[in-house]
């Protein structure tokens, strides 16, 4: 597999430190650039205001706070994303049901494959 171009920078939005580190390591190993990780909605929105990610990995629940505002901001900016959640697709509102979902726990290879697919058209 060809590594993704360096301009494929991925915004990681994950509140669990260990999971965030594992995601970051998997992305870096696959050749992606990493923005974050953001551990709260406010941190994710601040990073999104400053950065131009090619894609994002979004946890639905950030410390008990829903991250749907971040999902809405990603859609508004045209940034494709994958939702990594223990809730499955049923946890997404109808407006975001088209978004790929990786049920936790997931294989890092599944994450990088999903992101490669999302970034391929960018």
Automatic annotation (TrEMBL):
Keywords: Phosphoprotein. The keyword Phosphoprotein applies. SUPFAM superfamilies: CheY-like. The modification 4-aspartylphosphate is found at residue 59. SMART domains: REC (SM00448). It holds the Pfam family Response_reg. InterPro entries: Bact_response_regulator, CheY-like_superfamily, Sig_transdc_resp-reg_receiver. GO terms for biological process: phosphorelay signal transduction system. Residues 9-119 form the Response regulatory domain. PANTHER family: PROTEIN-GLUTAMATE METHYLESTERASE_PROTEIN-GLUTAMINE GLUTAMINASE 1, STRESS RESPONSE REGULATOR PROTEIN 1. This is Response regulator.
């Amino acid at each position: 597999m060809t590594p993704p171009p360096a301009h494929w920078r991925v915004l990681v939005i994950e509140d669990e430190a260990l999971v965030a580190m594992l995601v970051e390591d998997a992305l870096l190993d696959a050749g992606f650039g990493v923005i974050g990780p953001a551990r709260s909605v406010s941190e994710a929105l601040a990073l999104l205001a400053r950065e131009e990610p090619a894609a994002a990995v979004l946890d639905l629940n950030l410390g008990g706070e829903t991250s749907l505002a971040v999902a809405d901001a990603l859609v508004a900016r045209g940034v494709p994303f994958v939702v990594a959640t223990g809730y499955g697709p049923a946890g997404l509102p109808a407006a975001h049901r088209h978004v790929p979902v990786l049920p936790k726990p997931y294989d890092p290879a599944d994450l990088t494959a999903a992101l490669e697919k999302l970034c391929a058209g960018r």
